[in-house]
């Protein structure tokens, strides 16, 4: 009887190399599932701990790690649901912020637009898991069924339902990057200059604005609809709640032009604009400091 070949050390270089090969995938799954950069990074580390403790041979490390991080995310979402029921105002995902025209994390950011993240939040946790694994990372339904311990027929049904829901709510915005950046900069200038008429020209009549303060800082607790209401809300915030030593930076937020605003040496807010036909159709302002801890003051780029 021949001896079995010795297995590599689970925490050794081969196991580490396999994990590093799939690290971006793990973060991508976790971020899409949770909408949180910090929580996604935590789950990547938890996945490494699980991976390093495996003592048997794993023929498909990618599938094993995807199953691990997906189930960790589903467990995390169970406790997150309770917290969100008591959340004050709109809940927005944490942003992936990069400098414009740089390669740093751009591929990841562009593949998951902020508007799409909002759509994913409308799916149930199971629908989100199946959709992300199938439509984003290309896992087959048999593989997903095994990962989630459900039948292929069951996850296929869930996948079709999730895909139909996403397609119905998929963001329509497809303005060229240069148009998005131009409109973003012109709108910033109009806001800072108090130019209500120019703001109304740049806002679509049906524009909706969301602001997420999480009860920690001032923010609207309900969506604001209509160009006039949105413009006057923003001008009122600038006039009545001025920031200390504010600085504005051009950034890309999940691959789209956005703004990062510092005040008193800390990140105060991130602004995401969705633009259609040269006008702003959706505007999201993230101010909850708990969701900005992964960002550094000064932004990844210079002042706007």
Automatic annotation (TrEMBL):
UniProt organism field: Kitasatospora herbaricolor
Protein name, per record: RNA polymerase sigma-70 factor
Ranges where the RNA polymerase sigma factor 70 region 4 type domain occurs: 117-165
Superkingdom field: Bacteria
Electron transport found in the keyword field: no
Database matches in SUPFAM superfamilies: NTF2-like, Sigma2 domain of RNA polymerase sigma factors, Sigma3 and sigma4 domains of RNA polymerase sigma factors
Quaternary structure, from the entry: Interacts transiently with the RNA polymerase catalytic core formed by RpoA, RpoB, RpoC and RpoZ (2 alpha, 1 beta, 1 beta' and 1 omega subunit) to form the RNA polymerase holoenzyme that can initiate transcription.
PANTHER family: ECF RNA POLYMERASE SIGMA FACTOR SIGJ, SIGMA 19 FACTOR
